[in-house]
Write a structure and sequence with these properties.
Distance between the termini: 45 Å
Helix content: 55-70%
Shape: globular
Radius of gyration: 26 Å
Structural class: mainly alpha
Strand order of the largest sheet: 1-2
Length: about 475
């Protein structure tokens, strides 16, 4: 396994960036715009033919994205040794801050379009299309907030935890088919995506790599065969995009297949990822992953609007979605969409990259922040994006950021070890040396010293660092 200097897995990072690129390409192909005598028409190009089925087999990367999310989440949790509440609060800030910027901007732009006299139905379609990809934000936030709990279950029950989630997903799928109620399948928003995140834990701890290559290849083949059988039996739609809403167990099979195949070629991907061009691509996307994901749909909608306006002004005709001429123009369309999204992300990535202030967060406040974050997404998905719903969601997300803001760490707990010294000779009786902290502390203060011991050890200078020790003793 190849890692960067920062300890990151280059193969995982590259595949995650390729997943983001795949999402943009897929959504770009689904944008259809034509101009009629009544005005511009925006439609879902996927409805123009059966081409989406094979394309979805290649570009349905969301299961693998959640697997990688589990891999990255458990790695970050163990590296930082933080509390579950602090981890959830950090995820709220990491995901909600860039989302707040894009939703607030979308609300203002939609209001301006309405004020400019753009037809209400066109504004409504734009708001609806904008909100569709945001389902990922709500689900991913919920899964990441539960990650510390799921890690404990993974440590205790291993395959039992993963098997229970998968079994519940199968039961929900069966209940949806028997009752004919698609709403029943929405319960799998939890079971399917949590199971895929759980699979990432096995990828992180090396459990999958310890399985023989032949066994992994045979298991991946069996998963594909089972997936094809479910298509033929009618249990699942062959359109893997349709299996997103509501999520079905087909996504579990896709995620399992992708994960096993990735594990087989992981070393080769790591070697390729070291090439300068791919390393630069990975570094660029990794620094602004959420920004790129959140802003690619506004870019696509703006491109579609400009294209329709240009066709209206010049009297030109736009190719009908799904036709030969339409497909010939898709490479240029996708390239422009990807380039403009990347360009937009350069200045906007500062919002995502801003650091979260360290400190303690109460569990109830962290939970409230997660609920407010998910509630904002639900508002947009249920009612579409309008100036009003954008304002409501912005208020909810501002509340989420406020309640999850950590309390500042007391200054005395942030002092590095080189500022500490033994107590004065005449006060030695009032202090004793705590073995974990490695510093002199007042009698009875050992538990507090243990809590900050890791900060003390991390800040200890090298013997030859030349940093002087302050004469003042540590004050508690």
């Amino acid at each position: 396994m190849s890692t960067t200097a920062a300890g990151r897995d280059t193969a995982v990072d590259l595949v995650r960036c390729l997943c983001v690129l795949g999402v943009i390409v897929l959504h770009a192909l689904m944008v259809g715009v034509t101009v009629t005598a009544q005005g511009p028409v925006f439609e879902n190009a996927a409805e123009s033919g059966a081409w989406l089925v094979p394309v979805s087999w290649a570009l349905q990367v969301m299961p693998l994205f959640f697997v990688i999310g589990g891999f990255a989440g458990i790695t970050a949790l163990r590296r930082r040794s933080t509390s579950a509440a602090a981890f959830a609060a950090a995820r709220v800030h990491r995901l909600v801050r860039p989302a707040l910027a894009v939703v607030a901007t979308a609300g203002v732009l939609l209001a301006l379009l309405t004020h400019a006299g753009v037809a209400d139905d066109l504004v409504g379609v734009a708001g609806f299309r904008f909100s569709q990809p945001l389902w990922f934000l709500g689900v991913f936030l919920g899964c990441q907030a539960l990650l510390p709990l799921m890690v404990r279950l993974h440590s205790r029950y291993r395959t039992g935890a993963l098997g229970a989630l998968a079994a519940m997903a199968v039961l929900v799928d069966a209940a949806r088919i028997i009752t004919g109620e698609a709403a029943v399948g929405l319960v799998n928003m939890a079971f399917v995506w949590l199971a895929l995140q759980q699979l990432g834990f096995f990828l992180s701890d090396g459990s999958i790599d310890r399985i023989g290559p032949r066994a992994r290849a045979l298991t991946a083949t069996a998963a594909v065969a089972l997936l094809v059988l479910s298509f033929q039996s009618g249990f699942h739609s062959p359109d893997l995009i349709a299996n997103l809403n509501p999520p079905t167990t087909a996504l579990l099979l896709v995620g399992l297949t992708h994960t096993l195949l990735f594990s087989l070629v992981r070393s080769s991907i790591a070697v390729v990822a070291e090439r300068p061009a791919l390393a630069a691509f990975t570094a660029f996307v990794s620094q602004r992953t959420m920004t790129i994901y959140l802003w690619h749909m506004p870019v696509l909608l703006a491109l579609a609007g400009v294209l329709a306006l240009f066709a209206q002004q010049t009297g030109g005709a736009l190719p009908a979605p799904g036709g030969a001429e339409w497909w010939l123009t898709r490479p240029a369309w996708v390239a422009v969409a990807v380039a403009l999204t990347a360009l937009m992300s350069v200045p906007l990535a500062r919002i995502e990259a801003s650091r979260v202030r360290h400190g303690s967060v109460r569990a109830d406040r962290a939970a409230a922040g997660v609920v407010l974050g998910v509630a904002g997404v639900v508002v947009l998905l249920a009612a579409g994006t309008t100036p009003g719903t954008a304002a409501i969601t912005s208020v909810l997300w501002l509340g989420a950021l406020i309640v999850t803001s950590p309390r500042p760490v007391p200054a005395e707990r942030q002092l590095p070890v080189h500022t500490l010294s033994a107590p004065a000779r005449g006060r030695r009786a009032r202090h004793r040396r705590h073995p974990r902290a490695g510093v002199s502390v007042p009698a009875g203060a050992a538990p507090r010293a243990a809590r900050v011991a890791r900060h003390v050890r991390a800040a200890r200078p090298a013997p030859d660092s030349g940093i002087p020790r302050a004469p003042a003793p540590w004050r508690w």
